[in-house]
Amino acid sequence: MTAAHDGDADTMEYTRLGRTALQVSRLCLGTLNLGVRTTREEAFALMDEALERGVNFFDTADQYGWQEHKGFTEELIGDWFAQGGGRRERVVLGTKVFNPMSDLPNDQGLSARHIIAGCEDSLRRLRTDWIDLYQMHHVDRAASWEEVWQAMEVLVQQGKIRYVGSSNFAGWHLAAAQEAANRRHFLGIVSEQCVYNLVTRYVELELVPAAQAYGMGILVWSPLHGGLLGGALRKLADGTAVKTAQGRASVALEQHRAAVTRYEKLCAEAGLDPAEVALAWVLNRPGVTSVVVGPRTTAQLDGARRALGLRLDEGLLAELEELFPPLGNGGPGPEAWAW
């Protein structure tokens, strides 16, 4: 079992976002932790550091920072942009709309009213004139695609958004949405942001094939499954666990403890950091454009950058497949469950 680093660890990789001509970094700075698990000053420093190290793709959402108040994270990013220095111009900015922003019945979902009002609110909080990637945070089963696309078209025509993305969709949602957009001669969805990691591989069945067929980029959230794949057992043992001790990771640890134990041992034997192995694995999966990482420290950001150049050999990949097998027969449906 071996692994090698290709190229300079200081060199960022860029790729096109789906079928668009837009160039984005293969690491995307997720902002869920900023200002919540960091101080304001630490958040500003981390965004500056990411930008200086070539990360030009930032991802947020209207509801992020709800621990303080909904919209808090967008406000934080807006204050960072307001410092000038070309910060806004250098960033490809993605945010999201769907989740309830208040108790009012129309302050949620994907109605035309909420899409347009939500965009206006995000622009104000972000202190910017445009959003590069406006993502639907979840499918709204009550909203027709005609209504959704009419609203998105208005925002594009007004110059308030550049592209539309989705998040947490099913494969058939992508197909239905894109076919409706095609009928309107509208660009439609250019990327899908989904949970994907060694533990959670559902998207391989239909979502990834659908995205590839329509020329949509895949953006991966929770590549470490909430910290489970980042050396969870070691961190719990030495008392340094943060995310691992709560939420998705703590629940999954009970189900996957044996596999995670073997995984951490495998990484140790190969002389590799578990987080970097997990990131390298998902970065090199078919269809993956960019991986959303949510570092709280510069050291965590450096680890993600090292994973970009990490090439896992066939032996190590085979052991990972054994530890965290795909669903069914592996690969896309119907072959994953049939012949």
Automatic annotation (TrEMBL):
The keyword Oxidoreductase applies. InterPro entries: AKR_Detox_Biosynth, NAD(P)_OxRdtase_dom_sf, NADP_OxRdtase_dom. GO terms for cellular component: cytosol. Keywords: Oxidoreductase. The keyword Oxidoreductase applies. One of its GO terms (molecular function) is oxidoreductase activity. Residues 26-322 form the NADP-dependent oxidoreductase domain. SUPFAM superfamilies: NAD(P)-linked oxidoreductase. It comes from the Bacteria. This is Aldo/keto reductase. It comes from Streptomyces rochei.
